[in-house]
Automatic annotation (TrEMBL):
It comes from the Bacteria. InterPro entries: PIN-like_dom_sf (IPR029060), PIN_dom (IPR002716). It comes from Proteiniphilum saccharofermentans. Residues 8-51 form the PIN domain. This is PIN domain-containing protein.
Length: 58
């Protein structure tokens, strides 16, 4: 798997935080999933508002 750069993740995190009004740690987690093109598996329902990535709630 080819990883994403820190700069790419940072840029995505900034855009997600502005668009969805989420906390910085959540934006970094979501940005990492988006940059790596992977679903985000979580039990945190706050991520449901992020429509830019695939969310799997457990």
């Amino acid at each position: 798997m080819i990883g994403a750069s820190f700069v790419e993740i940072k840029d995505i995190a900034i855009r997600l935080r502005q668009k969805h009004i989420i906390k910085t740690p959540d934006s970094i987690i979501a940005a990492t999933a988006k940059a790596l093109q992977l679903p985000l598996v979580t039990s945190d329902k706050d991520f449901k508002k992020i429509t830019d990535i695939s969310i799997i709630l457990i």
